[in-house]
Design goal:
heterotrimer, A mainly alpha (about 300), B alpha+beta (about 450), C alpha+beta (about 525), A: about 300 residues, mainly alpha, about 75% helix, B: about 450 residues, alpha+beta, MetI-like fold, Immunoglobulin-like, 2 domains, 4-stranded antiparallel beta sheet, 12 helices, 10 strands, elongated
């Protein structure tokens, strides 16, 4: 177990190095000049700027400097090009927690909703509740997220206007109330996916021998449902949670934009548009490392949860 | 005394009651029973037809702008009046009235006899009013309902900056609606809280020159004639372009990305994963480690980075960089899947049997292994199509989608969502098409999953 | 870093974002709330370049002079001043204080100006200080910063030596780059200066009381401000930062913000909601700039003249932009630019081309004869939705009217800039906002030495006229030169004016005294108040 974890961690470090290198190469392929701005500047000023960001050195040297700065125990991604007095580390430290909380809530919504609705559709298979939920699920997977975000906000405005009191804030960040709608919107796609998965996995489990055995033993239907059917059906749902967490934490940009949330996604998009080298590198490598860590954690934990999985 | 007589030979004991079915025939039969999947298949065929042959049936240039009919909801052809060429508006300034008042007053009267000059048309609405004693200028407003009070005058169209400039021409996005114009006197800076209202319904007009340029009339047409404007069955967008034509054009982009990107990365994934899985060993380990690296790249972040790293030259639509970026980032999932399948199949008895019978590698791969992984691959493919369409839509949302004037469903959706309350049709049509396509592929994917599932097969 | 992060995750998020949820205006506490489109990227006044940073800095800092509500210069830190052709003297008020109670002195201005010009600071707006003696040489690294023509005869008297006579010098001193910076504070903060609320010291009407990056920025009345009795508001809270215009409108409808801009997509919804819409002219001019480099098709004047005769700015403003407030572009000089005694526009009416298809076709066939073959013209635009829309319009127009093929080259911000400066375009969509209240803020844009002349237009006569206007302080001489220059711009079709930008916005009916202005911080809430 320990060896397995260590092995995975070493592989993870190499993966992060691969991500960093790929980002570095791709970023330097992007045409354009990070130091250029609306107002043209003289050559002297330009040289000073180049010096400040180390862009006067050859690219290979920049790469090595970047790698050595990135080394633990104190990784340093440098200073942002657009916010010239903020360190990229600070940007990540200030804004990643926001994205993480949003993602966490979204995944919670998605999982709870997915399991609940999936189970419901399976119980009411081919009856009205099944059709209604499946219709909503279909909506969830077939409408782009920015449409949902806009509609969700509009709904809040109208509800608030109707009750004459700003019950759930339409945008902003701070209290749990602020987080409700954005995390719901963000989790919708995943919820739909999980519902479908849960439904088919429930239907598969129904015909398994151990359910028949349980029924033959005369267990109450509720007990069968909770103890045998649900528990076994959830397992395949959990396996796809790993990749889904990844998709949600990086995919929060739309929601952050529409709901004025100070998350990290906005910084990445802005950095790409502004060609802010240090922020692009910082956010990508950080996200990459985070995802690798998440996947390892999920895999290792899975070994604990499911006795059938033996880790070598 | 024989109790038993031999059974008649003619009875076929071992008759085959059902015709022998291949794996695919069997799957097809089961798919046919799945109504949802079959409807989805029809929808996909219809959308393909819409994309490929639609432009031949509806021959309207998707880039042609019709600024007389901007953001029109779906409607029957509109009638318009032909008008002479536009004549420059001359400001109305009366000389024997002071431009600036001698002294500032606490209050003034509302402008009297607010009136129209010339006929009100969608080419321009010209207003004039009597000068107000004490005014140093006027603000002109326009609303689409009768103003309920001073705070409900509507759009601030513009101002005049002299008490003796008593006319205004409005040409701002005029439509054949009823407008309520209000004129508010100012002291040259701040408004007095009085106003006069005039109700005007401009006539939909088009200049003769423009009508001729658009081939709407013959050469003999003259001002005053009534003609039919171009017909836009699904309405128009923000530049007056035909929505139906743009949806067909946009389908090409969205479906191109949606179908070719998955096709390419699945093909590459099959080759890569099949190769690794079949030969196994150290090669397999190295190849799969590399695939693991690529999987670890944050998808959307790299999608954006790659998209702009490949760059878009002038006049290019940016579809190809998007396609390449998608393929580069998506193949490992298929490769892993195929490898897993191949590893499993390789150990199956029939492969061993075929090998013992002298089957060579390429025979085994093409005759046995690949056909047996097809089911999984087909399912992956159908689910990858919606994902690719969504990725394109997301890129459009952050301004990195296709380059104008090329439309895509994603970019049309993104434009439409901004005006979803005032012009809902600009959002609904592209969103509906995305939804239907995504849904159809999803349901078809479900259908395939069920039809190809061997466990379900044995149950029937 | 990562481990600490995980531990902080919950605490950070819940401790610092707790105070949101106030209403948009509050009479009792004189507090207002509004939203920004982006986080101010640079609150170091020596380096700030963008509109949002300038807006915030205008509330928390004060220069020697400031603009009043009607756009006239009024005293700021300087009580009075005297400007001659060669020098300027400012007498500073003794009660002007920093937010820690220490007095604002002449040395604070000297430090700020020297530092901004220091090439190591690499300030992009350093050029606005070039009016000072030796400033340009210092900025080029040829002279030490101490050579700058500015001295303090005592703590409260600032004496400036000018490089050359400059009629509008006093207006320059209202600009952000001219704000004071206190040396001891600046040096104690190092690279972190202005990165957070605590890393900045204020001498304006407000201080930044709290700044949560990308989420909120709250300003509180500065108790040390010399004119605090004129300030009614106790707090200006910015609780939302997003570029999504629909989110802004929704927040306004929900009673969360007191002031917000509208755009072409949202104004109809604001009308349906029966909200009072205001309009304001930003003073910026947007135009299509041609590439005049030899070898480019657009260096041919006949092509440019042909386009000039089919492009109708009025149609663009009324049918394409279709939001009130924009004015059809007539020349490089917007309507508000002052002439000798009245508006420049009235004294020197700009020549305008009639929209004449036959004439345009004539020009085009001349161009075809000269160039043999006209390749598709590359129209370079940014990735903003409005820029795409305009490019699509121009593309459709030129194709349908002239059969002239245009290919749109849509690029992200930095890529567009790179292409602009390397000359990799035929036509580029550009805009220019004024920096100070003088015709010259536009006039020298196409001078051959101007780095912002991205199309590399060169015309000795144009350069001569710019020099005439620069070297003179006689209004008539300067304006005559600019009048001639305006004619050259038209005759040569150097650029194609599209529109003078206007914006529309919503303001809470109880919020009064907000100033919109062409120069300096906009919108300015300094003298705003909430009425009952």
């Amino acid at each position: 177990m320990l060896i397995y974890t260590l092995k995975r961690l070493v592989a993870g470090v190499i993966t992060v190095w691969f991500i960093a290198t790929a980002t570095f190469i791709a970023m330097h392929q992007v045409p354009g000049d990070p130091l250029m701005n609306d107002k043209a500047v003289s050559d002297v000023i330009r040289q000073n700027l180049e010096q400040r960001y180390g862009l006067d050195k050859p690219v290979s040297q920049q790469y090595l400097i970047f790698l050595s700065n990135m080394l633990p125990p104190d990784p340093d991604f440098g200073i942002s090009f657009t916010q010239q007095n903020r360190r990229v580390n600070d940007i990540i430290k200030d804004h990643f927690p926001v994205s993480a909380i949003l993602g966490l809530l979204a995944i919670t919504f998605a999982t709870l909703g997915g399991i609940l609705f999936g189970a419901l559709t399976a119980i009411y298979r081919n009856r009205l509740p099944d059709f209604i939920i499946m219709f909503l699920v279909i909506l969830g997977i077939s409408v782009p997220s920015f449409v949902f975000a806009a509609l969700g906000q509009l709904l809040l405005v109208n509800v608030n206007a109707l009750i004459g009191y700003s019950f759930i804030p339409v945008a902003g960040w701070g209290t749990l109330m602020h987080m409700l709608m954005p995390s719901l919107v963000l989790g919708l796609g995943t919820m739909a996916l999980l519902t479908r998965l849960m439904r088919s996995s429930m239907l598969e489990v129904v015909n398994e021998d151990y359910i028949k055995t349980a029924r033959a033993k005369g267990l109450s239907p509720i007990r069968i449902f909770l103890k045998h059917q649900l528990r076994n059906a959830i397992l395949p749902v959990i396996t796809i949670l790993g990749p889904q967490i990844a998709a949600i934490t990086t995919g929060g940009f739309v929601v952050e934009f529409v709901f004025a949330i100070p998350g990290l996604g906005r910084y990445f998009i802005q950095a790409v548009q502004q060609l802010d080298y240090t922020v692009i590198m910082g956010t990508t490598v950080f996200y990459g490392a985070f995802l690798v860590l998440m996947v390892i954690t999920v895999d290792v934990l899975y070994g604990f949860i499911d006795p059938r999985v033996r880790l070598k | 005394m024989i109790d038993f007589s031999p059974a008649e030979k003619s009875v076929a004991i071992e008759q085959i009651t059902r015709p022998s079915l291949s794996y695919w025939q069997d799957a097809w039969q089961r798919l046919k029973k799945n109504t949802r999947a079959i409807i989805s298949l029809y929808i996909i065929v219809f959308i393909a037809f819409f994309t490929l042959f639609g432009p031949f049936l509806w021959q309207v240039d998707p880039a042609l702008q019709d600024l007389n009919q901007v953001s029109q909801a779906p409607a029957l052809p509109k009638q318009a009046l032909l008008s002479a060429a536009y004549i420059q508006w001359q400001r109305i300034v009366i000389q024997d009235f002071p431009a600036e008042p001698d002294s500032y007053r606490d209050q003034v009267y509302a402008p009297k006899s607010l009136r129209l000059i010339n006929m009100a048309t969608t080419q321009g609405v010209r207003l004039s009013w009597n000068p107000v004693v004490g005014a140093g200028g006027y603000n002109i407003y326009r609303n689409e309902r009768y103003p309920e009070g001073f705070n409900d005058l509507g759009l601030p169209l513009g101002s005049t900056y002299a008490g003796n400039e008593i006319g205004y021409e409005d040409r701002l996005g005029l439509e054949p609606l009823t407008y309520y114009y209000s004129v508010v006197p100012t002291d040259g800076f701040d408004e007095y809280e009085v106003y006069s209202v005039l109700t005007v319904t401009p006539q939909l007009t088009i200049t003769v020159d423009e009508a001729k340029a658009r081939n709407l009339v013959s050469d003999t047409a003259r001002p005053g004639d009534v003609i039919s404007l171009e017909f836009h069955p699904l309405g128009t967008d923000y530049l007056g372009r035909d929505m139906l034509a743009r949806l067909m054009e946009g389908a090409r982009v969205s479906l191109f990305i949606g179908i070719f990107a998955p096709l390419f990365f699945v093909l590459f994934g099959i080759a890569y994963g099949g190769f690794a899985g079949y030969f196994g060993g150290r090669l397999d380990a190295v190849l799969m480690r590399f695939a693991d690296f690529v999987v670890a790249l944050p998808f959307l972040l790299f999608m954006i980075l790659f998209k702009i790293a490949f760059g878009v030259g002038p006049g290019e639509s940016g579809i190809i960089p998007m396609l390449i970026a998608l393929v580069l980032l998506s193949w490992p999932a298929t490769a892993r899947l195929v490898r897993g399948q191949v590893l499993q199949i390789r150990e199956q008895g029939y492969i061993e049997a075929a090998r013992l019978l002298g089957g060579r590698d390429h025979y085994l791969i093409f005759r046995h292994i690949i056909p047996n992984t097809m089911g999984v691959i087909l399912v992956t493919l159908t689910f990858a199509v919606p994902a690719a369409i969504f990725t394109e839509a997301f890129l459009s949302f952050i301004g990195m989608g296709v380059v104008p004037p090329t439309p895509s469903w994603g970019s049309m959706c993104n434009e439409g969502v901004k005006t979803m309350l005032s012009h809902p049709h600009e959002l609904i049509f592209p969103a509906l098409l995305i939804s239907i396509t995504v849904l159809a592929f999803n349901l078809l994917g479900d259908g395939f999953t069920e039809a190809l599932d061997s466990r379900l097969r044995s149950r029937e | 870093m990562r481990l600490i992060l995980a531990a902080q995750l919950l605490s950070v998020t819940f401790c610092c974002y707790g105070q949101v949820a106030a209403t948009s205006v509050d009479y009792a506490t004189q507090t207002i709330t509004h939203a920004l489109t982006e986080e101010p990227p640079q609150l170091n006044s020596m380096k700030a370049t963008d509109q949002v940073s300038v807006e915030i800095l205008g509330h928390v800092m004060e220069g020697l002079v400031r603009y009043d509500r009607r756009g006239n210069i009024t005293p700021g830190v300087a009580e009075r001043w005297e400007v001659t052709d060669s020098s300027a003297t400012f007498w500073l008020r003794r009660n002007a204080k920093w937010s820690d109670g220490k007095p604002v002195t002449a040395h604070d201005f000297i430090f700020a100006w020297q530092n901004a010009l220091d090439p190591k600071t690499a300030s992009e707006y350093a050029f606005i200080l070039y009016a000072l003696k030796n400033a340009e040489a210092i900025n080029q690294g040829e002279l030490p910063t101490s050579a700058l023509g500015v001295t303090a005869s005592d703590d409260y008297t600032l004496i400036v030596t000018l490089e050359r006579p400059i009629g509008y010098f006093i207006k320059l001193t209202a600009f952000t780059t001219y704000y004071p910076v206190r040396r001891d504070f600046y040096e104690s903060r190092g690279t972190r200066y202005a990165a957070d609320a605590k890393e900045l010291i204020y001498n304006g009407a407000f201080t930044i009381s709290e700044w949560v990056h990308s989420a909120s920025l709250n300003m509180a009345k500065n108790p040390h401000y010399w004119d605090k009795n004129s300030i009614t508001l106790n707090a200006i809270n910015i609780d939302y930062i997003t570029a999504d215009s629909r989110a802004h409108l929704n927040l306004f409808i929900d009673g969360k913000i007191a002031h917000t801009g509208l755009d072409g997509e949202t104004y109809k919804d604001a009308l349906t909601q029966k909200l009072r819409i205001n309009s304001f002219s930003t003073g910026s001019i947007f135009f299509l700039e041609y590439n005049h480099r030899p070898g480019r098709a657009t260096s041919n004047i006949n092509i440019r003249k042909a386009i000039q005769h089919v492009f109708d700015p009025a149609e663009m403003v009324n049918r394409v932009l279709a939001t009130p407030g924009n004015l059809p572009g007539k020349s490089l000089f917007p309507v508000w630019v002052k002439g000798v005694s009245v508006r420049f526009r009235d004294e020197y009416p700009p020549p305008t081309a009639t929209i004449d298809l036959n004439k345009a076709k004539q020009y085009l066939s001349d161009a075809r004869a000269e160039l043999k073959d006209i390749p598709p013209l590359v129209l370079l635009v940014s990735d903003s939705p409005i820029a795409s829309k305009q490019a699509e319009y121009v593309q459709g127009l030129l194709l349908s009217k002239l059969g002239l093929k245009i290919v749109v080259d849509k690029q992200t911000f930095k890529q567009r800039l790179a292409k602009m400066s390397s000359g990799d375009f035929d036509i580029v969509g550009a805009g220019w906002g004024p920096d100070f209240d003088d015709v010259m803020t536009f006039g020298d844009l196409f001078a051959s030495w101007n780095l912002n002349n991205r199309g590399r237009y060169t015309n000795p006569e144009y350069d001569r006229l710019v020099r005439v206007a620069m070297d003179s302080t006689v209004p008539k001489v300067r304006m005559d030169a600019m009048g001639e220059l305006q004619q050259i711009l038209f005759d040569d079709a150097v650029l194609l004016p599209q529109y003078e930008q206007g914006i529309i916005y919503l303001q809470h009916p109880k919020l009064k005294g907000v100033t919109r202005r062409v120069f300096g911080p906009d919108p300015d809430f300094t003298y705003a108040r909430v009425v009952k």
